[in-house]
Design a protein that fits this description.
By secondary structure, the chain is an alpha+beta fold. The chain is built from 17 helices and ten strands.
Amino acid sequence: MKLVYKTALAMVLGGATATTASAADELTIAIVNNGHMINMQKVAEAYTEATGTKLNWVSLEEGVLREQVTSDTATGGGQYDIINIGMQEAPIWGAAGWIEPLEFSADYDIDDMLPAMRNGLSHDGTLYAAPFYGESSMVMYRKDLTDAAGVTVADNDSWDNIKAAAAAIHKPDDGIYGACLRGKPGWGDNMAFITTVVNSFGGAWFDKDFKPQLDSQQWKDAINFYVDLLGNYGPPGSEGNSFNEILALYNEGKCGMWIDATIAASFLEVDGVAYAQSPNAGNPVGANWLWAWAMAVPAGSPNAEASKQFIEWATSKEYIKAVADHPEFGWGSVPTGTRASTYAYPEFQAVAGFAAAEMAAIESAAPAATDLKPYVGVQFAAIPEFPEVGSAVAQEMAAALSGAKSVDDALAAAQSAADAIMKEAGYY
């Protein structure tokens, strides 16, 4: 297998030797602690062998990662050579000069990158972060449980039907919960899912003047629905659950339905999983999100060229093949949602029963501004203030879910906090 890795590396590095392939003795890389990122640490051992560059990995829970990476990058702290960021940050940070523009060799084949990912990580046509994996969101459900209960889950189903299905398969005495959904506070945790629910109810974060709309009827309807669904048919302690916690519950056979990142399908270990496009409450636009965990280089890094070289390898076609050929992984574990070519491999198609549903979700995601949602972004707003606004609102939504506050009180507090942030930022 080492020969396979070296061949792939030679293609990306242009045959460079260990002494010329990298100007850095070592690189420090901040990554989110999700499965594909953890796998990369093993696959990249071959990169160190081929180039002589030592890779220091800092693996963090996503909320902690966002906080630390934002602080370090904004202040020029220089703690990391390469950072994991996403579509909310990349265009904004690129425009602000916080991260380096990325240009790769012709062999990289940037035209193979899915347009949704390339556009979402660019500013004015310049790529500022390269996607390691991309995702939308969809329903992942246990068809054996829905069949036994005599209910169905359809593409773009109504939320009322989803709730009825959750009720039918919910058997907490047997350790099975009807729906497992994000509740852990964070703008990219509970608010990622909650925002898609709000969108589907016809709500939005801001109006055209960027005044928060958290006290609207659409937000009230959406949050009442969310709290009711998860409170009645979800696992206890949902206010502490995000992606990794729910993935563990699902693989323990405790979740009947999970509506979350399409990338989760790569890591599901239970039998009989089926997939459906995200539900809505009359408005399908924005009912499924769009995201990429991507790799970027902080501006002014002394190891910028070596960092870009690593990113070119780690987000290339050759990296996909290296994962597929790795003795611990294989085609079922390759990072998806970034390149069209991945979906064309017969070996991938044979093991990825989720592939068509994932691609349909990514292609149907709608990040562009609309009259209803006058800002770019699906589950976030592409403005610098959004992480602060989203984090403040996230705490209030977790309080409503746990019962510490009523939905009305939580939304009133969220509206007040968001309004104060946006006024201070000078929007109105």
